[in-house]
Each structure stands twice: as C-alpha cells, then as structure tokens.
Amino acid sequence: MKRIFIAALAAAAISLSAAAVLVSAGPAAAASLVRVTNFGANPSNLNMYIYVPDRVAARPALLVAMHYCGGSASAVANGYFKDYETAADQYGYVIVFPEATRSGNCFDVYSSQALRRGGGSDPVGIISMVDYAKSRYNVDPSRVYASGVSSGAMMTNVMLADYPDVFAAGSAFMGVPAGCFATTGGSTWNSQCANGQVSKTAQQWGDLARSMDPGYTGARPRMQLWHGTVDATLNYNNFGEELKQWTNVSGVSQTAVQTDAPKSGWTRTRYGNNSLTPPVEGISVAGVGHSLPQTGMIAYAISFLGLNTGGGGGPTTPPPTGEPTTPPPAGGSCTASITPGTVWGDRYNTSVTVTGSTTWTVVVGITAPQRVSTTWSGTFSWSGGGNTMTVKPNGSGNTFGFTTMTNGNSGARPRITSCTAG
C-alpha cells in the first residue's frame, strides 16, 4: 500500500479520534477490549479483539468494527468507534474488532482470494470471529452488522458482498465499492480506484458484488455509505459508485426517494423507501476530506443498523429503530426522528428533527417515572400527568431538544407518538 495512503490515513485517524463524541458521558464501564486467540480459520493471521459489555442482552446483536489503514483495533476502539462501545454498554450488544497484521495494517480488499466467499485471506478470518462470537454470546444471527472506516469501510463493502447471508446491514465511512480495489500481480494498491477513475454502470457494479458469492439468491444486506466531498485519498467519486452498486444489489431505483440534511453540510439520500432503515442510505459531508471530522455520525449509524433496538434485518422488512418515524398524516407529509441521545448520570439528553413540513405538531411519549427537566428550540406543553409532551415550532427551525430525568428508570427512552403537518 502506498506510503502516502498510510500517512494520510494516520493523519485522518488523529483527526477522527479528536472529533469522536461519546454517545454517553456517564462513568466508564468496567468492560474493556480483550484479545481472543484460536478463534478458528485465520489464513492471513489477523488479530481478534472483542468488546463485551458488563450487561449483555439476552439475544444480543453483533457488530464487526474495522479500522483504517495504518490503524489497529485499540486505536479505532478508543477513537473513531468509541461511540459504538459506549452504546454497547447501553444496549447490550457485542463488538468484534478485527486487526490486520500485514505491513501497513491494511485489510485485504484487493486479492482474488478476498473477493470471493470462502476464498481465503482476511474475510475468512473475520467470519471465524463472527462464528466465535455467535457461539459464545447467544448472538441473534439476524442482527450481525459491519462497519468500518477507510480500509475498514472498503472491507465492509467486501464482507457484505462475500457473505450476504451473514450480515443484515453495514455502515461504511469513506470506502469504495466491493471489488473496485481488485489488483493483479500481488499489488495491494489500485490507483485508478483510489483516484475515483473506475466507473461502471449500476448493473456492472451489482454483478461484480453478486459474483463474489454467485450461489446466493436470498435477501441482501442494507447499506449506509458516508463520504467527504473533497476526499483526496479515496476520491469522492467512489461514493457515487458505491450508491450505484448497492442500489442495484438491493434491487431499488438509483433515484432517491428522500433527500434531507440532518446536520449542516450533510446531504442524506435514501433509496428504496423513506423509512429510517431503507435498503440504501448515503450521507455526503460538504467540504470535508478523508477524515469526516463531524460530530454525531456514529449515532446515525447506530440507528440505521438497528443496534439500539431489538430489531434489525434486511431491506424488505426494515424494523423500527431508535430514530422512530410516523406515517404521513392526511393532508401533509411530516416525519419526526429521534436522534440517539447522551446519558449524563441520571439525565438523558436528546433531540428530534422534523422533516416534510415547516409547520407541525409532534407528540412525544415519556415513560413514568421519567420526567422532562429541560427543553429548547420549541413550544412545549404537557398532558397525561406529564407523560405526554406536545411540541410545536417556535421559529428556531425544525429541530428541538429536551432532557429527561430518569428517576430510577434508566432503560426507557422517549418515543414519537405522532407527527402532524400544518
């Protein structure tokens, strides 16, 4: 792998670590990253690390979280993906952190062995880690997910193509389409792909992904894709090529059914449907290079994957998530989405974004004995003994927020009851 690539990713890692924002700001959990050996077939000598929260759900989800080139399991666990660990403490899921050990610490997303199911190299070792975790933690096999940054994002694309029956969904930060980085002659670097010079039709990209597991005919994983518009390491053109690939793989139109801006500078597009767990979702971040130094991204990935619920699944029957939506009411379209919040001791801080209308009424349910203690950016009223909160805009935009006191019930979360436009 080119030295400039490794240097760029190392710089990005520093930026990402500095930008990481915790989902929870509560006391540190006793759980820690633990190395596992003898976990199964491992042809490329990967290291396996696992994060198991102190309180594991009875039927937990499993996340495979993959580091950037030049990185390590501990670097990404304590940096860019720290929010995944913090959320695991809250929701009880298990995280596997594969670690590449070859020179440059990049994952193999280029060899013919890696680009086919059961062919060898890193994907086989990663699947062994998945099987290990499944066998020991009663993992729900329908709730296995992958997420990665840069080299790990490229591997997220590859793993979902190699093993579409294993993964329910993926979230890839700054990657390239599955198969794009393929090389010959033992090279580990594909300049054309990195520079955004590889362009295919959606059908061609879809066929390439399907060829990596040619015997598979079942449901395909959902995919969430992230990229900065001025990425000079893995060119932004790769974002569009990824969207082509995964819309084709999922059998949905390349025309977005919804476009919005969850945060300033972000453009989010959804394909196939406008639910919170669509078959394909893309988020581009304006003016950002190969570092995505924005806050809150992992919270959106957690919601898209379904790590904050008992749900999860494929593109045809998306489950509810922690960013709930309501069907459009008669006479107008209105959607209210809860952003996964932060826990500060006995307080839970979160926000709600409304799309589809600038005039709206949102009803939020609060589970007793929890009570709302602080509100902002909306006009609020209460009923039902304080357990039903009605919010209308106050001229400050389509996002409002509030803090609840848990009052001994730390597990319950606020929920959207309705969103009415007009």
UniProtKB/TrEMBL annotation:
The name this protein goes by in its record: Poly(Hydroxyalkanoate) depolymerase family esterase
Signal sequence range: 1-30
Span of domain CBM2: 327-422
SUPFAM superfamilies noted in UniProt: alpha/beta-Hydrolases (SSF53474), Carbohydrate-binding domain (SSF49384)
UniProt keyword Hydrolase present: yes
Origin species: Asanoa ferruginea
Listed PROSITE patterns: CBM2
Pfam families: Esterase_PHB (PF10503)
Cross-referenced Gene3D superfamilies: 2.60.40.290, alpha/beta hydrolase
Lineage: superkingdom: Bacteria
Compositionally biased spans, kind Pro residues: 316-330
A GO BP entry: carbohydrate metabolic process
UniProt entry tagged with the keyword Repeat: no
GO MF terms, alphabetically ordered: hydrolase activity, hydrolyzing O-glycosyl compounds; polysaccharide binding
NCBIfam families: esterase_phb
